[in-house]
Design a protein that fits this description.
- With 358 residues, the chain is α/β, with parallel strands linked by helices.
- The chain is 39% helix and 14% strand.
- The chain has helices spanning 3-19, 38-42, 66-80, 95-108, 122-131, 174-187, 224-228, 242-256, 261-275, 280-295, 346-357, and strands spanning 26-27, 89-92, 113-116, 134-137, 158-162, 190-195, 218-222, 236-239, 299-302, 310-315, 322-323, 339-342.
- The radius of gyration is 20 Å and the shape is globular.
């Protein structure tokens, strides 16, 4: 087993207890965040009760919504310039539910050992421990770091990859993805890409390079709620090899049931936004907050950021004044004093600025 991966569960439980205890410390790694565009992004959902927008007397079956699946396939073809069919789309109410479905599928198909490129989201560790699945790391560093040492097994397996590396706002380099694609074709291995924070590139680009991994050997999870930073609705989807779509969709439905009407309406709204306006206003806001925090003197050092809304940096504030996720939460050695900072948390930004002023 890999003790450091399972140790993350205890660390996350501890930070949850700490952030709910009013002891005056500032939580800078917040999961939540706000921005000025929520109402605009929601459209009719911002001011109209969902029951007036759809039939609440019926189950809201996401997977039976052919128009939604077609819309999701169309937006991926537009963003990634790769073929995508509705027969590859498994829509769901939230990324966590899809992680649970995928890990249940791993165990149900007899897989008790998988490989992964660190870091992975701590909920993977939860399900692996629950189901008795052994996770084996294939690198001692993270993909964006200098000296990344990818050691892929010479066997057919399932490998997990997080792209982008969310806590640091960094994308997996194309060379790493090329290596993975060649390895997949040579071994027939499946790769699951946790793309929860994809399509949030600061350079304005829309394509995600992981879309070029072999389609018949790759599962990729995308989360429009993160794309829009509207977490009160639940919306995510998997892009999977066509032969896996029906088994995974059936398993997901039996595990989680149907979505709410509100979440189904939001899934359509989010797909429409991705096809039309996009999230450039949100990303401009994130970049402005980053510039503001940097100019305030609240950071002693920081890693380069290129996507998403999490920054990995060392605040000037005394560590004992903060509640924060450091490298231990991501299986990251070194980087003393560096923590994840949510650039959409006004409370975190104001608090760090105030502590920097003394």
């Amino acid at each position: 087993m890999t003790p450091s991966l399972f140790r993350m569960l205890d660390l996350h439980e501890a930070v949850e207890r700490a952030r709910q205890r009013p002891d005056g410390r500032l939580f800078v790694s917040d999961y939540n965040g706000g921005h000025p565009f929520v109402a605009d992004y929601l459209g009719d959902l911002a001011h109209t009760p969902p029951y007036r927008l759809g039939d609440v007397g019926r189950y809201s079956a996401l997977d039976e919504d052919a128009a939604l699946r077609a819309k999701i396939a169309r937006l991926h073809e537009r963003y990634d310039t790769e073929p995508c069919s509705p027969d590859r789309v498994v829509p769901a109410a939230g990324a966590s539910a899809l992680l649970g479905t995928f890990c249940t599928w791993l165990r149900a198909t007899g897989r008790t050992r998988i490989h992964y490129v660190p870091p992975v989201y701590y909920k993977f560790a939860y399900f692996f421990r629950l189901f008795g699945i052994e996770p084996v790391p294939v690198a001692g560093a993270h993909a964006h770091q200098p000296g990344f040492d990818l050691r892929l097994p010479d066997e057919k397996t399932v490998l997990l990859l997080t792209d982008p590396v969310w806590y640091a706002g960094r994308r997996v380099p194309p060379l790493v993805l090329k290596q993975l694609a060649e390895w997949q074709l040579a071994t027939g291995s499946l790769v699951f890409v946790d793309g929860t924070f994809q399509y949030m590139r600061w350079d304005g680009g829309r394509r995600e390079d992981s879309a070029a991994l072999p389609a018949d050997l790759t599962l990729r999870m995308v989360c429009p709620t993160k794309y829009l930073s509207i977490h009160g609705y639940r919306c995510a989807h998997l892009l999977v090899p066509e032969p896996l779509r029906e088994p995974l969709a059936e398993l997901h439905l039996n595990l989680h049931g149907d979505a709410t009407l509100a979440d189904r309406l939001f899934a359509h709204r989010a797909a429409d936004l991705m096809l039309l306006e996009g999230n450039h206003r949100l990303l401009d806001h994130v970049r402005a907050n980053h510039q503001r925090l940097t100019a305030s003197g609240a950071l002693a050092a920081q890693e380069r950021i290129e996507t998403g809304y999490f920054l990995f940096a060392r605040p000037t504030a005394p560590p004992e004044r903060l509640i924060a996720l450091d490298g231990r939460y991501f299986e990251l050695p070194g980087h003393p004093g560096f923590v994840r900072i949510n650039l959409l948390s006004e409370t975190a930004l104001e608090g760090l600025e105030e502590l920097a002023r003394g």
